[in-house]
Design a protein that fits this description.
There is one protein chain. The protein is of the alpha+beta class and about 375 residues long. About 50% of the residues lie in helices and about 10% in strands. The protein is built from 16 helices and seven strands. The protein has a five-stranded mixed β-sheet. Strands 1-2 form a two-stranded antiparallel ribbon. It is globular and about 60 Å long. The C terminus is likely disordered.
Length: about 375
């Protein structure tokens, strides 16, 4: 299955690739026009461009430059000056752990897609996984995702100093003919064809004290970053932004009012007031999103109903049964059989045979 994206990317990040192309003698204007990007947007680094246009632009530039590794090389050549407000905030961090926390909190300044996750593996390495870049993602998106992974690697080197070394980088794209180019720009061994894109580094770097930061400067930058993040996140209705956050797994289906409010940098009271003005509530949004996710998983027919219930934050199948019956008038098992039946009738049998009826749910399924 091809994974598509409907988000946006900050113009400040697009600048890095445009300047990289100019440095190599390629005028990006032709590619900008080909991607149908409004040049007025490019005048403001805080503007956003739909990712399908960004992907078209990046792939067109890669074709003209004859550089499929464009995202990696552009990210690795980021200068110390800022392309986004998140970069100076990252550089002012006193440890890599603090920097990663700030990236996760304010990733919306870069992209609407899920922020990177951070975890330790059993080999004493820290794994930073880029959630949007996984096996199955459309090839047109590789350059954009690799740009972000490469930029993170470069920022980490700038923050930690020349002794910092990345242990390994995983990429989802198939092994290229010239894989040495990727290792050169990333400065680390690279594995291709992986399930997810990730950057690994030794765990001791996570809490290593890097420098003393002036707290007044840090607070000033953070305040400015928070203001910009609030402005970006306040686009559109709060209901739609919560649904998007659920889809991107930035909040869990079991999230509390406080957790959701903190994500959008507002109080629980303000959250409730805005949702009431939009004629809904957090409980209603979570329930609707759970139902839609469950319907999708039931149609895919890969997980049991019990597994689906657990996946969307319920304690067990009975709760999912009850909610489906209340909102859809049928149990999850009946819904799955209905989808199977509709699919069977939509596919003509080559022998003219009549599809066999699907089994119905038992009374136990309605318990």
């Amino acid at each position: 299955m091809i994974v598509t994206s409907k988000g946006t990317l900050s113009v400040s990040i697009v600048y890095a690739v445009l300047n990289h192309a100019r440095m190599q003698g390629v005028d990006p204007m032709q590619s900008i026009e080909s991607a149908r990007i409004d040049t007025q947007l490019l005048r403001d680094p805080n503007q956003r461009i739909p990712v399908h246009q960004v992907d078209h632009l990046f792939n067109e530039l890669a074709r003209r430059l004859k550089q499929p590794e464009l995202g990696i090389s552009a990210g690795a050549r980021l200068e110390g000056r800022s392309y986004t407000l998140l970069q100076p905030l990252f550089m002012c961090s006193s440890s890599l752990r603090e920097a990663l926390s700030l990236v996760r909190e304010f990733f919306v300044l870069i992209s609407d897609e899920p922020p990177p996750s951070v975890e330790r593996d059993h080999q004493g390495l820290v794994r930073v996984t880029f959630e949007g870049y996984q096996q199955g993602v459309a090839a047109e998106q590789w350059i954009r995702h690799e740009l972000i992974a490469s930029a993170f690697s470069q920022w980490s080197r700038l923050l930690c100093g020349r002794d910092f070394a990345i242990s390994r980088v995983d990429l989802c794209r198939p092994r290229p003919a010239q894989e040495d180019i990727y290792q050169y720009w990333l400065g680390a061994p690279v594995r291709f064809g992986c399930q997810e894109a990730a950057v690994y580094f030794p765990a001791f770097w996570l809490d290593k004290q890097l420098h003393q930061t002036n707290p007044h400067i840090m607070d000033m930058i953070k305040k400015e970053v928070k203001t910009l993040a609030d402005r970006i996140q306040n686009r559109g209705s709060l209901t739609e932004r919560i649904k998007q956050a659920l889809d991107q797994k930035r909040i869990a289906f079991s999230a509390t009012q406080q957790e959701v409010a903190e994500l959008f940098h507002i109080s629980s009271r303000t959250l409730n007031r805005h949702l009431q003005q939009e004629g809904t509530s957090l409980k209603t949004i979570l329930t609707q999103s759970r139902i839609e996710t469950a319907k999708q998983l039931l149609a895919e027919n890969k997980l049991s109903i019990e597994q689906i219930a657990m996946k969307i934050g319920f304690s067990g199948r009975r709760t999912l049964d009850r909610i489906f019956i209340k909102h859809l008038g049928m149990s999850p098992a009946q819904y799955r059989n209905k989808i199977r039946s509709e699919s069977s009738h939509n596919v003509a049998s080559p022998m003219g045979e009549t599809p066999q009826p699907q089994e119905t749910s038992t009374s136990n399924e309605l318990a």
